[in-house]
Design a protein that fits this description.
This protein is α+β, with helices and mostly antiparallel strands and 87 residues long. The protein has a single domain (3-86), classed as CobE/GbiG C-terminal domain (Nucleotidyltransferase, domain 5). The chain contains 5 helices and 4 strands; from the N terminus they run βααβαααββ. It has helices at 8-11, 14-23, 32-35, 45-51, 57-65; strands at 3-7, 26-30, 71-78, 81-86. The strands form 2 sheets. A two-stranded parallel sheet has the order 1-2. Strands 3-4 form a two-stranded antiparallel sheet. A hairpin with a 2-residue loop joins β3 (71-78) and β4 (81-86). Residues 2-86 form the CobE/GbiG C-terminal domain. This is CobE/GbiG C-terminal domain-containing protein. Pfam families: CbiG_C. It comes from Paractinoplanes durhamensis.
Length: 87
Amino acid sequence: MRALATIDRRAAEDGVRALATAYGWEVVSLAAAELVGYDVPTPSETVADAVGTPSVAEAAALAAAGGRAVLILPKTTFPGITVAVAG
C-alpha cells in the first residue's frame, strides 16, 4: 500500500494521520463530489445521507489507485473503521 485515502472531513483527524505516518503512507483527501461518481459494489444510503456520497472506503480506494484500478478488498467493516483496498 502507498496511500490512505478518505473523505476530506476525515483526512485531518489525528488517528488517520498517525496511522498513515506509522506506515509511511501518503494521506489522500477527497471531497464527496470527487467520490460520488465511482461505481462501487456496496453503496450505502446511510453514508450518502451523512456525507454526500454513497461510498467513502471503496470510492476513495479506487480514486487513490487511479485509472484502471479494481477493488482488491471490497468494503470491510471493523469496530470504528471501514476499509477497502484497490490496485
